[in-house]
Amino acid sequence: MKNDKNVAIPRATAKRLSLYYRIFKRFNRENIEKASSKEIAEAIGIDSATVRRDFSYFGELGRRGFGYDVKKLMDFFAEILNDNSITNVMLVGVGNMGRALLHYRFHERNKMKIVMAFEADDNPAVGTVDQNVPIHPISQIEEKIKEANAQTAILTVPSSAAQSVADSLVKAGVKGILSFSPVNLSVPKDVVVQYVDLTSELQTLLYFMRKG
């Protein structure tokens, strides 16, 4: 089985990798040993041709007529997604959204763990601990992140502060940012930014509801 984490794949396929991993984990819990592309597609809500095309980027993951080995594919996607070891994550912004993320138990679902959080220096939350996560002043972000052995950050700050915070994260060595701030960030080419815009997603949902 080919296992090249650097293989070039379309962005749409990359976005489905975690879905495939989740499905294979579920199949494994249900003691399902083999799964067809049709069964995988139905579990995710796509067509089987898309599953086969996605998998083709990684070489021979299964044999035609025999289906896909659930345990092997679960382990394969765990490695592709680096879910075999704990990934330390920082949270910047401990408002309502930030608090919700602190209370979301990432480590119980996948091997990701928020190890520290940051807020404005004058915020009453600074110096406290929430869900065993210390909250530091944002002025110490570069110093603390270098101590944390982490290259991933979640950004939930106001739009006006997003770029300056992103600059500090990049300077501290962060290579991946998940941003909930509705503003495009300017970062070096070796830094990956993923955006989550809940308002846009809700508006899209409402559009399709009205259209239907």
Features:
Arc Repressor Mutant, subunit A, 9 helices, single chain, 2 domains, globular, alpha/beta, 212 residues, Rossmann fold
Write a structural description.
By secondary structure, the chain is of the alpha/beta class. The chain has two domains: 70 residues, Winged helix-like DNA-binding domain superfamily/Winged helix DNA-binding domain (Arc Repressor Mutant, subunit A), CATH 1.10.10; 114 residues, Rossmann fold (3-Layer(aba) Sandwich). Helices cover 44% and strands 17% of the residues. It contains nine helices and nine strands. The chain has a seven-stranded mixed beta sheet with strand order 5-6-4-3-7-8-9, with helices on both faces. The protein has a two-stranded antiparallel sheet with strand order 1-2. A hairpin with a 2-residue loop joins strand 5 and strand 6. Helix 1 crosses helix 4 and helix 2 packs across helix 3. 25% of the residues are buried. The model has no long low-confidence stretch (mean pLDDT 87).
